[in-house]
Amino acid sequence: MFCFQCEQTAGGKGCTNAGVCGKKPEVANKHDELTCTLIGLARAASGQKTTPETDALVMQSLFATVTNVNFDPQDFDAFIQKVNEEKNKLGGAEDFAPEALFHGDPDIVSLRSTLLLGIRGMAAYAWHAYVLGKQDPQVTACFYKGLKAIGEDHSVDEWLELLMEFGKTNLACMALLDEANTSAYGHPVPTKVTTIIEKGPFIVITGHDLLDLKQLLEQTEGKGINIYTHGEMLPAHAYPEFKKYVHLKGNFGTAWQNQQKEFDNIPAPIFFTTNCLMPPKASYADRVYTTSVVGYPEMKHIPDAKVKDFSPLIKQALELGGYSEDQYRTGINGGNELMTGFARNTVLGVADKVIDAVKGGAIKHFFLVGGCDGAKPGRNYYTEFVKQTPMDTVVLTLACGKYRFNDLNIGEIGGLPRLMDMGQCNDAYSAIQVAVALAQAFECGVNDLPLTLVLSWYEQKAVCILLTLLALGIKNIYIGPSIPAFFSSNVRNVLVEKFNITPISTPENDLTAILAK
Ligand code: SF4
Ligand code: SF3
After folding, report:
1. Residue 7 CB less than 6 A away from ligand 2
2. What is the number of the ligand 2 atom nearest to the C-alpha of 67?
3. pTM, to two decimals
4. Complex ipTM, two decimals?
5. Any residues with CB less than 8 A from the CB of 359 and at least 6 apart, and which?
6. 165 known member of a binding site
7. What is the per-residue DSSP string for 351-377?
8. Do 203 and 298 fall into the same domain?
9. Nearest to 125 by CA among 467, 512, 476
10. In terms of domains, do 378 and 506 share one?
11. CATH code for the domain of 76
């Protein structure tokens, strides 16, 4: 096997014996086979109209190969078979050779992999929009075009052009998902979320899929079961549609990498709607439920349906009964309240206040400290960075990296909290909209704003977002905890030269350098 798609890859180079994530060689090899078969499908589809079923299969297959989504070899056999069937219906074509996927000239492997990993990330977002009935032809076409391009030879300049074009399409995809979520559930509003777990039966729901949450809330209403969000599901509390459910109580635990500790002996079922799933420990394996493209051998799976049937989860939640006393749990810094809901509508709604505060000197700088969390000890950087930001600065955040600091109270500026959670990783769209609006208000470019992006990455959704930011011409991004292993030294040099991407160093050094500008 060879896999270097995520930040925790072995030795910072690539997993070759087994995945640090728990992915077995058999599954890794099936990921490659599936990818190469998808390239064959994209070749066959060239110049033809595809059906919504084929489009859905392409998105699901790509999504399933994202880190911490699916560990079940049988699921991949089924995907490979279906993709082959669809390819043959379209007249057939030769697949890409799996041995060529990650081998050859290091720069070409790097560029090819970057596009592939970005496409995998975008497939997750496109899928969430798709289940809410939203598709954008430009986004759908990009999967076929991108996969086909991955199987072809290109010059370095052509690859870079493909990557920038992809980045722009991913912006359209995030816009599509934003539209899907806000039209279904309303615009998020600032919301305080408790970390206290009340006694009695409960279910923990994790991942990014809001439709799964909606259906779970409907089916558990009035049954004496409380629902707690986990990980990337936290921002759901801020949507008006979800506020209607009084049994949506609060947030359980912190970011994904702590799940094996936090779910140990939990008296409740845990429902994984997407990544990040870690190999379950025996103490809670009988309570793990997966759905959609998420899978793990022997774990219970809620089958796809227009309305999913959560009765096994509900039954088990009632049987387990939850805690016998309220649990006073906290975030990692000891706080027991998390604020969320500062998506674009909220922030742009107070744009006048923000602009006045910048003009009057009350706000000197904005930081976007966001992205994925992970297990590396160096990720403590992000906690320290936020703690050390001066009082006349604002910290915007999004995605699961925020659990490093989202229970901290870092004060207010002019009636606004200094720390504002914009939502899930896909809500990077909100952050981009806010940055563009500020740039318009100040009649300057985004790069001229007193704004610095300090990003943390782990999996492939972060890759597609990074490509979007670069395609928008956003420079001076700080990235950590390490530079992706799939960036060859030459590709890395190009990114530094063209975009001044900077690896994080220490919070003190980086803050001094940023604020000195
Ligand atoms: Fe290794 Fe990450 Fe690939 Fe898992 S997803 S096999 S940890 S590089
Ligand atoms: Fe987190 Fe897995 Fe990426 Fe959506 S849930 S940001 S790591």
Report:
1. no
2. 2
3. 0.98
4. 0.98
5. none
6. no
7. HHHHHHHHHTTS--EEEEEEE---S-G
8. yes
9. 467
10. yes
11. 1.20.1270.20
